[in-house]
UniProtKB/TrEMBL annotation:
This is Outer membrane protein beta-barrel domain-containing protein. It comes from the Bacteria. Residues 438-882 form the Outer membrane protein beta-barrel domain. Pfam families: OMP_b-brl_3. InterPro entries: CarboxyPept-like_regulatory, OMP_b-brl_3.
């Protein structure tokens, strides 16, 4: 550890060496007044390469840190004649420049800035030739040099703090649209322009009517690079039989494209992540919060989210194809993944009941997960005023989980083996037709048919009668409990929209939406006796048989008007819900709701904006919350629903400010949001030792949260500085043993970052984040503190070598219960990529300090948990790649 700190310290000294300040002023020669916002352009004379530029401040002054070299200096200002001079920066130098006025005004500033990047209302366009040095191999290497962009190690891109959601090449989705694939694979020498397109709409004629808040990146290719084959094949091996095989092959042309990516490894890298899973189901911006929570918490997402395991084997394959005609595009892709992981953990649970006690758990598991996703997409645009899009997506996944658990406590001891298998199939077909009747009237119709079937089979094998008194178990040599669950969901819907352009700055949108959502849920629970006969739990209130149908219709109108720099978008939505619940008893209820929305946007400049949003959300209970019978939710929990549950109503207010200035290297974001759960659904818990009985009730007490965040990044010379802070306050209620307890939480986080941007020296990034948490319950008050340190190094040297290193240290302290732990993670790679050969050689290492477990502490109103999850050991591999 000390050697690492010394290494980083000496490196930082090296990064800051040989830097001198070049400062001065720009003065109007006729009046003697200093000129603000004059552009100072610096070009290195030896290599004739643009180094940087800076604007004078309100006092006409500028300052720039430069290396010990000779530079050409250009001073430009609107209405003045450009001055060109040279300067040798071998010490701190101060100069004054006098500009003569000119009678003919030329927009010189914008001419020079457009040659490097151009900022418009919803786009930023970079000409990458001005940032290219010739050492870039992939698109990622170029993006790292563009002002305002950040690229992480996996290839995820952010622009001035906002995440890029999709990648296009020449206006068409690259592969599946996942930016990581293109960022890590597109060759750098093929790229001509990088375009960041905010508020992006696939249907161009709807751009003026709808705000998507989606940021996409479009890559424009060089004219001689629009038909090419690229890719590489990588093979790697390491000690303890570690291996990696990763072919990535791409063909691109304007008419058609074909791609294939494969990955086979046992080094702990998951080719398909939970973020990818959300993106392939529509993306976080295009699904409701309820649907997002449902996706992120299902069994398959939990499998993808599991980052802590002792062993892993991942098999991945993906292929895509696109064919383009003059007015149509046909594309599709298939993705398959098969993964096996082994897990182990040790947990201490402290139950904060009237009679507190501890439970020790040991768990060892084997998980297998496989899935298949396939999509076909047809786009047809017969004219500029008509657009048709049809896509169909199917998804199949199968997951098995075997877990051996030992639970020991003063209340009871349990040995349990659980074996589960979950199969899921879903399909989604969508149609969108848009037609512009004339300049004032545009129509669109959207229709969808969604189908989802889930089948889950659970087997618990234990040495005692668990959940005593809750399920009617009989004594046997081995107690085997079986639960089968089947769940089917359908969604048949359509939306008709009419866009009326009242004037050039005012539009009116009217819409009518209808959805029919039939759902079924069935469970069967029983004990399997040693003689293979069964002991049904049905007489004790188990076995769910629910038919749940929802019809929803929405009548909406939205006005969009631009008044100077303001854009107002008030919306009025009238929603009708009809619920039909058929189980032991039948329930049929209907209700109208009024749900207003408001969006206000103030465009201070093209790169500085203020947003205000308000919306009211209405949602219905899900099927598991409505059942009138019992089902097993784990080996120590029984759950039932409540068919009388009402609707959920919440409101959200948000204020957001953003500003960026690529010329001055500035990015600033601030936000404030307030959430209020007016009418909700609350789970209740009754504890009997470690056993839990759960139910759901309507809950009318408000649960509120207030969030504030601020971040700023500023580039000064060759150093980028960053500061961020956030604060969250919330209150929520827990119902334990029929007592309602209010909990209050406060979370404050403050962080600092610094990053070097030298051309010939290593790129070093350092960050520190401090987090304070206060958790106030009816029983006690818990204070926790967390410190996170991160260091990342990227160094290109001797033309053909690249060294990367990252280190993360997490310190956690819970002073209320005396818990203090730390965890660090590290990675390195050294690659050799000689210029005149297609071969690349690479040495990589993960978990360099060979950490054996990750320790996590968590808590709620009645339970404090301290868990150690065991990890893969240190992995060092040698990789060999061949580039096409």
């Amino acid at each position: 550890m000390r050697k690492l700190h010394l290494f980083l310290f000496l490196l930082s000294i090296q990064c800051f060496s040989q830097q001198f300040k070049f400062s001065g002023s720009v003065i109007d020669k006729a009046s003697g007044e200093k000129i603000s916002n004059a552009l100072v352009v610096l070009t290195e004379l030896t290599e004739n390469q643009l180094v940087s530029f800076v604007f004078t401040n309100n006092q006409g002054l500028f300052v720039k840190e430069l290396e010990n070299k000779k530079y050409m200096v250009e001073i430009k200002h609107l209405g003045h004649i450009t001055v060109i001079d040279s300067v040798l920066v071998d010490r701190n130098i101060q100069r004054s420049f006098h500009l003569n006025r000119k009678t003919e005004v030329l927009d010189q500033i914008f001419l020079i800035t457009e040659s490097r990047f151009n900022v418009k209302k919803d786009s930023v366009i970079y000409n990458v030739d001005y940032y290219r040095t010739g050492q870039e191999k992939k698109l990622k290497d170029i993006l790292k040099k563009l002002p305002g962009l950040e690229v992480d190690r996996n290839g995820n891109v952010t622009s001035n703090g906002k995440s890029v959601k999709r990648l296009l090449v020449e206006g068409k989705a690259f592969f599946t649209g996942d930016e990581k694939l293109g960022v890590n694979n597109i060759p750098a020498d093929a790229v001509d322009e990088v375009q960041l397109l905010d508020n992006y709409s696939e249907v161009a004629m709807l751009k003026q009517f709808e705000d998507t808040d989606e940021l996409v990146m479009n890559i424009k290719l060089k004219e001689d690079k629009k038909r090419f084959v690229f890719g590489d094949v990588t093979a790697g091996a390491g000690y303890k039989e570690r291996y990696k095989i990763n072919p990535a092959l791409f063909y691109y042309s304007p008419e058609y494209a074909a791609n294939f990516i494969g990955d086979l490894n046992n080094n702990g890298v998951k080719s398909f992540t939970s973020k990818d899973y959300i993106d392939f189901n529509g993306g976080i911006l295009n699904i409701s919060p309820t649907e997002y929570f449902k996706l992120n918490s299902d069994q398959f997402a939990q499998f993808l989210n599991n980052r802590d395991f002792t062993n892993s084997v991942d098999r991945f394959g993906a292929g895509s194809y696109r064919k383009s005609w003059k007015k149509s595009d046909l594309s599709g892709y298939v993705i398959f993944n098969d993964a096996n992981i082994s897990t182990a953990s040790q947990t201490i649970n402290e139950y904060q009941t009237d009679t507190p006690f501890k439970e020790n758990r040991q768990s060892n598991g084997e998980q297998d997960g496989r899935f298949l996703i396939a999509k076909v997409d047809l786009k047809n645009q017969p004219s500029k005023t008509k657009d048709l899009r049809i896509n169909s997506l199917i998804k199949f996944n199968n997951a098995t989980d075997f877990d051996r658990l030992v639970s020991q406590s003063t209340v009871q001891n349990t040995f349990l083996e659980s074996d589960s298998e979950i199969q899921s199939f879903s399909s989604s077909t969508n149609l969108l037709y848009t037609s512009e009747i004339n300049k004032k009237h545009t129509y669109s119709i959207q229709a969808n048919v969604d189908v989802q079937d889930n089948t889950s089979n659970y087997l618990w094998n234990t040495d005692r009668l668990i959940l005593s008194g809750l399920i009617p178990l009989e004594q046997d040599d081995q107690v085997e409990i079986v639960q089968d669950l089947k769940n089917s969901n359908f969604n048949i819907g359509s939306t008709l929209k009419h866009y009326y352009k009242i004037s050039s700055n005012t539009q009116l949108q009217s819409s009518l939406t209808g959805n029919y959502l039939p759902n079924t849920l069935e469970t069967t629970s029983f004990q399997l006796r040693d003689d293979t006969s069964t002991n049904s739990f049905n007489p004790s209130g188990f076995d769910v048989d629910l038919n749940y149908n929802v019809f929803r219709s929405i009548l909406g109108t939205e006005l969009r008007t631009e008044q100077g720099k303001f854009t107002f978008k008030p919306s009025l939505l009238f929603q009708y819900f009809n619920q039909q619940i058929d189980q032991t008893d039948q329930v049929n209820r209907s209700q109208w709701f009024f749900a207003p929305k408001l969006r206000v946007q103030y465009d201070i400049t093209n790169s500085e904006r203020l947003y205000f949003n308000f919306n009211r959300n209405i949602s219905v209970p899900n099927s598991q919350q409505l059942v009138d019978r019992l089902f097993l939710s784990s080996f120590n929990a029984v759950t039932s629903g409540n068919p009388q549950l009402d609707y959920r109503i919440s409101e959200r207010y948000s204020l957001r400010y953003s500003k960026f200035n690529l010329y001055k290297g500035l990015s600033l974001n601030a936000g404030l949001s307030y959430n209020n759960q007016i009418q909700g659904i609350k789970s209740t818990t009754v504890l009997q030792g470690i056993d839990q009985i759960r139910n759901y009730i309507d809950f009318g007490l408000d649960e509120k949260s207030l969030n504030a965040n601020f971040s700023i990044n500023k580039t000064l010379g060759n150093i980028k500085y960053g500061f961020n802070s956030s604060h969250r306050f919330s209150n929520y209620y827990q119902i334990l043993n029929e007592e309602i307890n209010e909990n209050k939480t406060q979370n404050t986080s403050i962080g600092l970052t610094i990053k070097t941007l030298f051309d010939q020296l290593p790129t070093l990034s350092l960050s520190y984040q401090k987090t304070f948490n206060n958790y106030d319950t009816s029983i006690n008050t818990i204070n926790t503190f967390q410190d996170r340190f991160a260091a990342n190094l990227d160094y290109e040297f001797l033309n053909d070598f690249v060294f990367e290193f990252s280190y993360n240290l997490n310190l956690y302290k819970n002073e209320s219960i005396g818990v203090d732990n730390q965890f660090d993670d590290s990675f390195f790679s050294l690659s050799y990529d000689p210029e005149n050969t297609p071969w690349t050689y690479k040495l990589t290492g993960t978990n360099l300090f060979d950490n054996r477990f990750r320790q996590v502490n968590s808590f709620n109103d009645f339970l404090i948990t301290d868990r150690q999850t065991f990890l893969q050991p240190r992995i060092v591999m040698f990789e060999l790649s061949y580039k096409l």
